[in-house]
Amino acid sequence: MAVSRSGMPLRDVVRGRIEWPRLEAVARELARRYGRESVRVEFLEADNWLSTPCAVDDEWFVKVISPQNSLVHALFTTGRNIGAFSSGTPGFFDHVGSPIELAERELEATERMREVGVGAPRPIEAFEVDGLGVLVLEYLDGYRTFDDVDDETVERFAPRLIESLARLHDHRLVHGDLRAENVLLHEGRLYFIDATTVREEEGIDDARAYDLACALSTLETRIGAPEAVAMTREAYSADDLLAAREFLDFVNLRPDHDFDAALLKGEIEKAADGSA
């Protein structure tokens, strides 16, 4: 984890800290909305740069989004679009302007994933308190991320990850930020979280290829490039894999992906040659 000169994790510096009175205002509003005298809030340790995540009464997963989070989202979006451009395609990530808009967009993305049969926590609502966007989802108590489980478990669930991603893509939807931290396992089911926003009218095919590159990079480090590509080939065409290959160097620049891009490219090329 990157650390700032102050000794704080860089993520915490960039994300910023929301003042306690404002967080208490969010807690009071949650209690009011759900008919409770008070609520118990547990702040969660997560690799999340764009919100302050917490569990409320072990029933709701809540993201509190500040104006600084919105600004960081804009900077990340610009950087990702520049990276996409370096891969030879126009930028396809979309930025929304305010904390409440970020919360509403993620709520909508979660709803749409569930509508097409992809596992995602049950969306509840998004609202605003004191300039903060608040997103409320079902809390999956006892969940584990792909980062938390052993390689054998990843291999067992990897086909389900690819199937879920293919289902999204078949419905002209994309995730936009697929990585191990955003894949949850809970009671034998796989869930996607933290879907981001892409421009629907343009760049959907490039965003789809980027999703696939992220999935391959996530699996390569845990089950190996040959197995990751062979598994993906069952749901995607050779052309899809070749399109994803063009984004591997871009994905490899991200600090939350660390994989052997050259090895993956070689396996993709072998798979494409074999299908010719």
Q: Would you give an account of this structure?
A:
By secondary structure, the chain is of the alpha+beta class. It has two domains: 10-138, Phosphorylase Kinase, domain 1 (2-Layer Sandwich), CATH 3.30.200; 144-275, Orthogonal Bundle (Transferase(Phosphotransferase), domain 1). It has ten helices and eight strands. It has helices spanning 10-15, 20-33, 67-86, 99-115, 151-170, 204-223, 225-233, 238-245, 248-252, 261-275, and strands at 41-43, 52-56, 60-65, 123-129, 132-138, 144-145, 183-186, 189-192. It has a five-stranded antiparallel beta sheet, sandwiched between helices. Strands 6-7-8 form a three-stranded antiparallel beta sheet, with helices on one face. Helix 5 (151-170) packs antiparallel against helix 6 (204-223) and helix 7 (225-233) packs across helix 10 (261-275). The radius of gyration is 19 Å and the shape is elongated. The termini are far apart. The model is unreliable at 1-15 (pLDDT under 50).
Radius of gyration: 19 Å
SSE topology string = HHEEEHHEEEHEEHHHHH
Low-confidence stretches: 1-15
The backbone outline, from C-alpha atoms, is elongated
Distance between the termini: 43 Å
What oligomeric arrangement do these chains adopt? single chain
**Strand composition percent:** 5-15%
Describe, in short, the structure shown.
With 276 residues, the protein is α+β, with helices and mostly antiparallel strands. Helix content is 49%, strand content 14%. It has 10 helices and 8 strands.
